[in-house]
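Support request, please re-run this one:
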Amino acid sequence: MIVVRFAPSPTGYMHIGNLRTALLNYLFALSAKKRTGEDFSFVLRMDDTDTERSKPEYEQAVYEDMRWLGISWDRLEHQSKRLDRYNQVLEDFKKRGLVYACYETAEELEYKRRRQRARGLPPVYDRAGLKLSEEEKKELEAQGRKPHYRFKLEHKETSWDDIVRGHCSYNGAHLSDPIIVREDGTFPYMLPSVIDDVDFGITHIIRGEDHVTNTAVQIQMFEALGAKVPVFGHPPLLTGREGKLSKRLGSLSSRELRDEGIEPMTIACLLARLGTSDPVVVCHQWDELGDHFDLTLFGRAQPHFDTEDLFKLNPRIVRSMPLAEVNARLKERGEPEISEAFWAAISPNIDKIADIAQWEKICFHDDVYQIDEADRSFCRQVVDFLPEGDFDETTFGLWTTLIKEKTGKKGKDLFHPIRMALTGREQGPELKMLLPVIGREKTIMRMQG
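Re-run finished. Output below.
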């Protein structure tokens, strides 16, 4: 079974970068299932060990955003409930000599890094903590210093075959031994993530390229735990208009996108192809999108993300929606369902689901629109030329043909007054489609004013 995970920190609302990570993991597992027939499991893990910044409302927002996107999870875990497990592994590592205590302050470590850079050396930790005797450690602790702990990396080549980046290799001698426990006894990201991945049976880890170096470190941790190393994929990070992901763009939350009327499948369809050379495919179901997804197609270049692309794609998604899905969206909004004929008439002019309400008002409310007196006179004259019988898609053509014959009007002089009288709008859906929806009674009323 393929097991993937998404691990947000509930310290703020989900933004476009978080959404992308969740989407890529879900689509990767879904597409693999469709290719191989293997089932998959999606783990949602809350990285909530930052007790000061983690908030219940942010955690609830993650659940809400995931459900809105249409991503379901099979297992929910909280790192804050697994501290005993992390400490258990830490003690085992201590006994095995895989971790060691260090006593430098943050300022002292920064001073060391500056000196190394000034000498043209990489800022790699010098393992001073390993050289301390027990007496020196006791003396430092007597001064009020508390130790932080580092994982002792093996100075060897660590490599893996990345789904996106291909073969990757790092030498442990060129990397700093990572801090795995802070002075206050809390755990940073590195070790708990590996322990979770082992315990939850994660088989594939899809995350941003900013974690590439972490991967070399974490592979050694997997090996220290005697666990099978997962398959990794590191797609490049998104960039904005200025060549980097701006703070505004990076913090764009999913609820803001939702409030703007962006559909979840608009986000999914765009992000599924952003970073590949393939065009965006309009899909309405995850299964359908999974047929078109392939993580190996993602290039190494950083893809350009622009919110305008979402606003351009959204109308394509909405206008091609099946009626059942449209009505489901309207139900979520507490609005009444619409008919097939009404949707067929207005859909080419809809950019987002919220736009339906204005055309519903135009078509079904008993409004009469104010127009120029000359246009009103023309409308009163030609209303008498309306064909008999029920309105259908041929009615408007028959009507306007007769108007041309009787009045000699054509083009804008003919169509503009009628459109303004019927809808109060300069532009809109084709009147041949709209007329049957408005109906004879309202058509006569609005033409006569």
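The longest strand covers residues 40-46. The two ends are 68 Å apart (CA to CA).
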